[in-house]
Amino acid sequence: MLCLPEKFDSASLRSLISAFGLRKRFPKEYEAWERGKNEIERRFQRISAQRKAAMRGKVEEDPEDIRPRRHVVSELLETFP
């Protein structure tokens, strides 16, 4: 069994798959993995876009609300570089 960290980037994963020849050795499993990966990526992108749109909407509604937060973050970053 091959155990990989969760934060394994896509380019490294593709290099690993290519180096071991997994696509040729296990074509059915590779295709199933690729479909699942693509579905997860599309869902993540959709959720991310929805959250960004919601945040933009909140900022546009009340831009004054975000200023205190920026101030607090700036103060924290100055205190703990």
Based on helices, strands and strand pairing, what is the structural class? mainly alpha
Helix content: over 70%
Overall radius of gyration = 21 Å
What is the tally of beta strands? 0
Low-confidence stretches: none
Strand content: under 5%
Q: What are the secondary-structure elements, in order, as H or E?
A: HHHH
Q: What is the 3D form?
A: elongated
Query: DSSP helix count?
Result: 4
Head-to-tail CA distance between termini = 41 Å
Q: Tell me about the largest β-sheet.
A: none
Tell me what you see in this structure.
- Helix content is 83%, strand content 0%.
- By secondary structure, it is mainly α.
- It has a domain at 28-79.
- α3 (27-61) crosses α4.
- The chain is elongated, with a radius of gyration of 21 Å.
- The model has no long low-confidence stretch (mean pLDDT 81).
Tags for this model:
0% strand; 81 residues; elongated; mainly alpha
SSE blueprint and pairings:
Blueprint: H1 10-20, H2 22-25, H3 27-61, H4 63-79
Short description:
The protein is mainly α and 81 residues long. It has helices at residues 10-20, 22-25, 27-61, 63-79.
